[in-house]
């Protein structure tokens, strides 16, 4: 009987977890639609609740605030899924940091950055706009920028430790170059504003990073 009770509790817990995951997903996607259509400031939790068909009390329990919803939406958009794994710890990132071919490493990170920017680009504009009037949004923007800087510093550190950087280029300066060229602002300028094809942008970004970071013999190989 005790074993049966434990089994029933386990099944019930899994069912609750599945319902919670579905509710979170519905809220996140409803928020995406409303933030893009109305903007962050004009979107209410009640509107998100209605579109997601999730009670407002549940939305507050799951996310605490509209800021919490925006953060969850950005996390899902950056990672491409709702797995609770920091982006820097994901297998494809860890694998690239140990790639012995610096050109392949840069091309791999550019591909990841392009994929992230495709998912996040429109939302990033909303976040930047909201940060001008909302302190919570400003804090979130600062945190995302800090995380991006840490990731790009890791790329520069990996190249420096492998002796792959141009001789006169310091690791810190390499990180600055990566930060500027792989920024969401550069993606927005060329892809969203100037209407470059994503393939063209990706090829250009790989070429310019290799030219700016690696020795000329590596860039030509």
List keywords for this structure.
mainly alpha, Tetracycline Repressor, domain 2, 11 helices, elongated
Description:
The structure is a single chain. The N and C termini lie far apart (69 Å). The model has no long low-confidence stretch (mean pLDDT 91). It contains 11 helices and no strands. The longest helix has 37 residues, at 2-38. Helix 1 (2-38) crosses helix 2 (45-52) and helix 1 packs across helix 3. The chain is mainly alpha-helical. The chain has helices at residues 2-38, 45-52, 56-63, 66-79, 91-97, 102-131, 135-161, 171-181, 184-193, 198-213, 216-220. The protein has 2 domains: 1-84, Tetracycline Repressor, domain 2 (Orthogonal Bundle); 85-221, Tetracycline Repressor, domain 2 (Orthogonal Bundle), CATH 1.10.357.10. It is elongated.
| CATH architectural designation of the largest domain | Orthogonal Bundle
Structural class: mainly alpha
CATH homology superfamily of the largest domain: Tetracycline Repressor, domain 2
What would CATH call the class of the largest domain? Mainly Alpha
What's the tally of helices? 11
How much of the sequence lies in strands comes to under 5%
Order of helices and strands: HHHHHHHHHHH
User: Largest sheet, if any?
Assistant: none
Question: Which secondary structure elements does this structure contain, and how are they paired or packed?
Answer:
Blueprint: H1 2-38, H2 45-52, H3 56-63, H4 66-79, H5 91-97, H6 102-131, H7 135-161, H8 171-181, H9 184-193, H10 198-213, H11 216-220
Helix pairs in contact: 1-2, 1-3, 1-4, 4-6, 6-7, 6-9, 6-10, 7-8, 8-10
